[in-house]
């Protein structure tokens, strides 16, 4: 299993690197990874690794078997051998925008309290799909409510519960299509707000900002009908 440095500190942009293995397909498996692997609607991090006097561009990161994180180099680069050491650096500007977007989508699910059927996070535009047969109302009011939650600068933190506790509290899970990862004994929850009940509390393995004020103002994008009961709601960083 790869140690998840992004989970320990989402704001860390550079760290030492030691390569555990290189797969037959050309993926690099580090012993510890700053790179978030694609999952939960959040794209994998891009960036660079420096080893043996060379700099390799990493296009993205993916999940592998047994809890491994796979770093996917851009094509045409000479791969380092297992055991090589050096430095890993993520593209921080992109990562931080994804963190802001991811937290903003959690708040969108508060403003629009419907079951979530899908989602996608991007550095400029992100969206959630809701099980929402009818239009959600005045777009300007939705945008204002979302930005009010952001401006209130609520703290963002994490809690951990056991698999059994999550199974006993299905209301924590907002997503209909994607179930939280279970089987390791505990599940990470992202909590927004310091009070009880919190503004939002749901299982999530992604990276987030420390407080909602860090998101900055967002703009509501298109609200589209997708199928008989689904509405797709997009947001943009202003």
Strand line-up in the sheet with most strands = 3-2-8-5-6-7
Task: Give, in order, the helices and strands.
Answer: EHEEEEEEEHEEHEHEEEE
Overall shape: it is globular
**Percentage of residues in DSSP E strands:** 35-45%
CATH class of the largest domain: Alpha Beta
How many domain regions? Answer: 2
How is the CATH topology of the largest domain named?
Threonyl-tRNA Synthetase, Chain A, domain 2
Q: What percent of residues adopt helix (DSSP H or I)?
A: 10-25%
Number of β-strand runs:
15
CATH architecture of the largest domain: 2-Layer Sandwich
Poorly predicted parts? none
Largest sheet, if any?
6 strands, antiparallel
| Structural class by secondary-structure content | alpha+beta
Distance from N terminus to C terminus (CA atoms, Å) equals 38 Å
CATH homologous superfamily placement of the largest domain: Threonyl-trna Synthetase, Chain A, domain 2
Name the average pLDDT. Answer: 93
The helix count comes to 4
Round the Cα radius of gyration to an integer and report it: 19 Å
Structure description:
Helix 2 (92-111) crosses helix 3. The chain has helices spanning 5-8, 92-111, 139-151, 163-167, and strands spanning 3-4, 14-22, 28-30, 32-33, 47-51, 54-63, 69-73, 85-90, 116-120, 125-131, 156-162, 186-192, 200-203, 218-226, 230-237. It folds into two domains: 3-90, Elongation Factor Tu (Ef-tu), domain 3, CATH 2.40.30.130; 95-237, Threonyl-tRNA Synthetase, Chain A, domain 2, CATH 3.30.980.10. A hairpin with a 3-residue loop joins strand 14 (218-226) and strand 15. The mean pLDDT is 93. It has four helices and 15 strands. The longest helix is centred in the middle third of the chain and has 20 residues, at 92-111. With 238 residues, the protein is α+β, with helices and mostly antiparallel strands. The strands form four sheets. A six-stranded antiparallel β-sheet has the order 3-2-8-5-6-7, with no helix packed on it. It has a four-stranded antiparallel β-sheet with strand order 9-10-15-14, covered by helices on one side.
